[in-house]
Design a protein that fits this description.
- By secondary structure, the protein is mostly helical.
- The chain contains ten helices and no strands.
- Helix 5 runs antiparallel to helix 7, helix 5 packs antiparallel against helix 9 and helix 7 runs antiparallel to helix 8.
- The radius of gyration is 19 Å and the shape is elongated.
């Protein structure tokens, strides 16, 4: 292993350890000593990569942003029914949150507005929902009297609420919970002719839940080795 590879692995270990501390203790109570110990490195190694705790938190948010962007981009692609893709992507986000502590911690840090940063990790999700529902309207998939701005407000409120509730009870992110949500929402949002064609449980197979962790780990990359973060 080259020196550069070791440096990358150390940085990634520090980001994951920091995410675990931020999720469990919050930004204020998390300490750099605990973060370095959790990564199995010295305090000097931590300070080689990050100037201070705010810089570590920024790296956690950055990695979380990349992972969330990958999910949003995936939801926007394809020619399948836009409403079904919206259902599928909500299930995918839930699996990502279950599998990846970095994403969970990044959202918590972002909600706490740590160090006054202005990145909005939920912006990409809002835009994804808006775009898919606008596409659904163009395709005639939305119920009469349910324009995209109204339906997106409901979907965003429901999914954001689930993410917040899951901080205390991960069961909110389980597939049955989201399936129940879509059982309630789809009859209100979808055009009647689609009622029997949409799957509230999502169309991805169950084994996708086992795969999401490895895909989420791809968000933990050194700067310059992945796509742009959400800003």
């Amino acid at each position: 292993m080259t020196k550069q590879d070791r440096a990358v692995r150390t940085r990634l270990a520090l980001i994951r350890s920091a995410a675990e501390q931020f999720e469990a203790r919050g930004y204020v109570r998390a300490s750099l000593a605990e973060i370095s110990a959790g990564a199995g490195v010295s305090s000097g190694a931590l300070h080689f990569h990050f100037a201070n705790k705010a810089a570590v938190a920024e790296a956690v948010e950055h990695a979380a942003a990349r992972a969330l962007r990958q999910v949003a981009v995936r939801g926007r692609g394809g020619d399948a029914c836009a409403l079904q893709r919206l259902v599928d992507v909500t299930h995918h986000v839930a699996r990502l949150l279950c599998a990846d502590v970095v994403v969970r911690a990044g959202l918590r840090l972002n909600a706490e507005a740590v160090a006054g940063r202005v990145r909005d990790l939920r912006r990409e999700w809002r835009e994804c929902v808006h775009e898919l529902l606008a596409e659904a309207e163009r395709r005639g998939e939305l119920a009469a009297g349910m324009p995209p701005h109204r339906s997106s407000a409901v979907v965003l409120a429901a999914t954001t609420g689930i993410e917040v509730l899951a901080r205390e009870d991960p069961g909110w992110l389980a597939r049955p919970s989201l399936t129940d949500l879509w059982h309630l929402l789809l009859p209100c949002v979808a055009a009647p002719q689609l009622a029997g064609a949409l799957d509230p449980a999502g169309t991805e197979p169950d084994h996708a839940e086992a795969d999401v962790g490895s895909r989420a780990d791809g968000a933990l990359e050194a700067p310059g080795r992945a796509g742009l973060a959400l800003r």
